[in-house]
Design brief:
By secondary structure, the protein is mainly beta. It has helices at 41-44, 107-117, and strands spanning 25-30, 34-36, 56-57, 62-63, 70-73, 80-86, 93-103, 121-126, 132-135, 143-149, 159-168, 172-174.
């Protein structure tokens, strides 16, 4: 039976853990190194029966030997994400903008951000309750940009602010395994 009817939208009544923001780590991978990027079931199978199957990806994103997700340690409380439902008549989608700060001026870190800025990527943003949002997909890559700031002597520190732009048909929750690059 296909999903055709709404079910109750519970909001706070669901008693779900509801802490805002992200954790102190995000993950980035090159889309080209992923050997399989699954889609939510309801987008590929008309027999889907649960509304969550429109936005949840449970199959893992897979990679070749040695390839995988790159962890990025970010400054606590700097992960931000907003999505806007973008629509014109007879079309719909989500524009997603996210950002996070990476502390320091390590040349290796800056070099990796430069590589990501010149690549089509996927980004995972873990939330405090264990859920993970996926930015980018098999159809639309996420884009990474960054800016570097040296701070001031009296306050602040050196950091890079990562900006991530993505577009998709809906916000995607990724429940698959995270394979780290080696």
């Amino acid at each position: 039976m296909a999903v055709t009817d709404y079910t109750p939208i519970l909001g706070k009544a669901s008693k779900e853990y509801n802490v805002g923001g992200g954790i102190s780590k995000i993950y980035i991978c090159s889309k080209a190194k992923a050997t399989a990027i699954p889609r939510p079931l309801a987008l590929v199978d008309p027999a889907a029966t649960n509304a969550s199957e429109f936005v949840e990806i449970s199959d893992p994103i897979t990679f070749g030997v040695g390839d995988g997700w790159i962890p990025v340690t970010v400054t606590r409380d700097t992960v931000k994400l907003e999505s806007d439902y973008t629509t014109e008549r007879d079309s719909s989608g989500f524009s997603v903008k996210a950002s996070a700060d990476v502390a320091g001026a390590n040349a290796e870190d800056i070099g990796n951000l430069q590589l990501a800025a010149n690549d089509e990527v996927l980004v995972l943003i873990p939330l405090p309750d264990g859920k993970r949002l996926l930015l980018g997909s098999d159809q639309f890559a996420a884009e990474v940009k960054y800016k570097f700031n040296i701070g001031e002597n009296a306050k602040g520190g050196r950091k890079s602010t990562i900006s991530i732009d993505a577009f998709e048909v809906a916000p995607f929750f990724y429940t698959g395994a995270i394979t780290l690059a080696t």
